């Protein structure tokens, strides 16, 4: 063994200075790190336990005699050598565990609103001079928060890509709630409408994604909103959830190919999808994805809510509007489909969609954080009660669950305390987003420290050994990590 531990009989501390109170002292004797614990044994005699750093996590330990002469100290070692030393009381760095922050968890701010902000214009017809449609968003933001690094939440209304609006009542309350927590919220109206065929419904979905991308880029350019570009979140209901998931996971190569023919030449192209940002986490409210392959494009946490018997969006895999319904509704649904089949060759104009159950299974299998909250009411919009009004108990529960999930993903580089595998005395954190931190060692001493590392020496006679770090991120959230040794 490289560490040599001597267990010796207690040596009499002849001439021990009575001015030294019992406690731990740093020993100055050359360049080596050493410490001395002065105490009193059961017979009332002074004892001195010498701890020497030999480059290992646990100190070498010797019982020595402590002598004083004219106010100076000497250590008498078991090999009869005597060394003059300077002793100074060891003071551990100030440490306290930062209280858990309720930032982004509890409403703190009044909310300001900017309505019908134009974030883009799209050509509606052939007249490039006149026939444009404005793309609109509503902005919600905290007043007097003082933050220079606000998180951004992009929200998207439901409506099956046919209807819905950014001013839907439950969405407005959702947006105001998250703004009161400290988020800038952008509530986006994307383009709606499609004909009843696969290409048209696909185009409606991809068109909404393009508008969502444009909305994010627009908001990030507004310096007055003071948004942290690494803290972008997305949420949506129904078609809005599909858009939020696509915003996080969809990439340009996932667009279906478009064949362009010009004379004798044929060219395969894909629609451009300008990004320049990443999504931190998604709240999927009874939504789905059009292709499970996109879930392999990134490692973005998702929290999902959906009824297992959702009649609109399949919980696992299937066609939209093809879920279980009650007997009376099923009769009229079947009758409508039969009549429509007389005029339309394809009774299912939508592509197969993959709902919350399938999303959760795939992400968990990939090791990506995914939470799934399910219901069993054969209902689609979990914010809407049977009477058509907002179901407030459920609405409040879901919004608070999403707030907790988002807050836990606020940091792009969360603190994770770890021991250096090549240097057992060294403990490290990633401090890239840390504003302040404090260190603590139980059963040991700190022999070196920098902004993101600490070097320690454990005292073998201590009852417990651990390393802890606590502090606050630049976002204002707090952290605490500890490793038992």
What features would you describe in this structure?
The protein is α+β, with helices and mostly antiparallel strands and 485 residues long. It has 3 domains: 23-89, no CATH class; 111-259 and 270-408, 3-Layer(aba) Sandwich (Rossmann fold), CATH 3.40.50.1820; 418-484. Helix content is 19%, strand content 34%. The protein contains 6 helices and 26 strands. The chain has helices spanning 169-181, 198-220, 239-249, 327-343, 356-365, 392-408; strands spanning 23-28, 34-40, 46-52, 60-69, 72-76, 82-89, 111-123, 132-142, 150-156, 184-188, 227-237, 258-262, 265-269, 281-285, 288-289, 302-307, 317-318, 353-355, 370-375, 418-419, 426-428, 434-442, 444-449, 453-458, 466-473, 478-484. The chain has an 8-stranded mixed sheet, with helices on both faces. Strands 1-2-3-4-5-6 form a 6-stranded antiparallel barrel. Strands 20-21-24-23 form a 4-stranded antiparallel sheet, with no helix packed on it. Strand 25 (466-473) and strand 26 form a beta hairpin. Helix 2 packs across helix 3. The longest helix has 23 residues, at 198-220. The chain is elongated, with a radius of gyration of 32 Å. Residues 1-18 have low confidence and may be disordered.
Quick gist of this model?
By secondary structure, this protein is α+β, with helices and mostly antiparallel strands. Helices cover 19% and strands 34% of the residues.
Secondary structure elements and pairings:
Layout: E1 23-28, E2 34-40, E3 46-52, E4 60-69, E5 72-76, E6 82-89, E7 111-123, E8 132-142, E9 150-156, H1 169-181, E10 184-188, H2 198-220, E11 227-237, H3 239-249, E12 258-262, E13 265-269, E14 281-285, E15 288-289, E16 302-307, E17 317-318, H4 327-343, E18 353-355, H5 356-365, E19 370-375, H6 392-408, E20 418-419, E21 426-428, E22 434-442, E23 444-449, E24 453-458, E25 466-473, E26 478-484
Parallel strand pairs: 9-10, 9-11, 11-14, 14-16, 16-19
Antiparallel strand pairs: 1-2, 1-6, 2-3, 3-4, 4-5, 5-6, 7-8, 8-10, 12-13, 15-18, 17-18, 20-21, 21-24, 22-25, 23-24, 25-26
Helix pairs in contact: 2-3
């Amino acid at each position: 063994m490289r560490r040599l531990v001597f267990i010796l009989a207690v040596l009499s501390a002849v001439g021990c200075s009575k001015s030294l109170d019992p406690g731990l002292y740093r020993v100055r004797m050359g360049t080596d790190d050493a410490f001395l614990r002065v105490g009193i044994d059961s017979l009332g005699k002074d004892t001195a336990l010498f701890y020497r750093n030999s480059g290992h996590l646990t100190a070498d330990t010797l019982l020595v005699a402590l002598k004083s002469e004219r106010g100076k100290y000497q250590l008498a070692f078991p090999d009869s050598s005597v060394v003059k030393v300077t002793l100074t009381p060891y003071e551990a760095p100030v440490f306290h565990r930062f209280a858990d922050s309720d930032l982004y968890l509890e409403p703190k701010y009044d909310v300001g609103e900017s309505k019908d902000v134009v974030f883009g214009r799209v050509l509606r017809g052939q007249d490039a001079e006149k026939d444009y449609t404005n793309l609109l968003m509503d902005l919600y933001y905290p007043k007097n928060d003082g933050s220079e690094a606000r998180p951004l939440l992009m929200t998207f209304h439901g409506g099956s890509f046919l209807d819905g609006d950014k001013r839907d009542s439950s969405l407005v309350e959702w947006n105001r709630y998250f703004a009161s927590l400290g988020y800038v919220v952008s509530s986006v109206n994307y383009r709606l409408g499609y004909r009843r065929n696969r290409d048209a419904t696909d185009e409606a979905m991809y068109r909404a994604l393009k508008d969502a991308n444009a909305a994010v880029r627009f908001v990030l350019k507004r310096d007055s909103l003071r948004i942290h570009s690494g803290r972008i979140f997305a949420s949506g209901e129904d078609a809005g959830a599909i858009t939020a998931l696509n915003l996080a996971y969809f990439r340009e190569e996932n667009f279906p190919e478009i064949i362009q023919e010009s004379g004798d030449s044929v060219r395969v192209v894909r629609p451009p999808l300008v990004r320049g940002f990443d999504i931190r986490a998604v709240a999927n409210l009874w939504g789905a994805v059009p292709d499970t392959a996109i879930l392999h494009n990134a490692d973005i946490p998702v929290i999902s809510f959906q009824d297992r018997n959702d009649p609109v969006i399949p919980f696992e895999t299937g066609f939209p509007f093809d879920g279980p319904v009650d007997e009376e509704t099923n009769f009229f649904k079947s009758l409508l489909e039969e009549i429509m089949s007389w005029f339309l060759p394809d009774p299912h104009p939508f592509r197969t969609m993959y709902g919350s159950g399938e999303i959760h299974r795939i992400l968990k299998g990939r090791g990506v954080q995914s939470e799934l909250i399910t219901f069993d009411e054969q209902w689609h919009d979990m914010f809407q009660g049977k009477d058509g009004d907002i179901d407030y108990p459920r609405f409040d529960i879901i919004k608070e669950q999403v707030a907790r999930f988002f807050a836990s993903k606020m940091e792009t580089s969360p603190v994770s305390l770890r021991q250096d595998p090549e240097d057992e005395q060294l403990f490290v954190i990633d401090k890239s987003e840390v504003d302040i931190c404090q260190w603590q060692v139980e059963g040991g001493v700190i022999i070196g420290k920098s902004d993101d590392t600490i070097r320690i020496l454990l005292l073998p006679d201590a009852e417990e050994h651990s390393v802890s770090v606590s502090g606050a991120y630049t976002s204002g959230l707090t952290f605490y990590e500890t490793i038992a040794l």
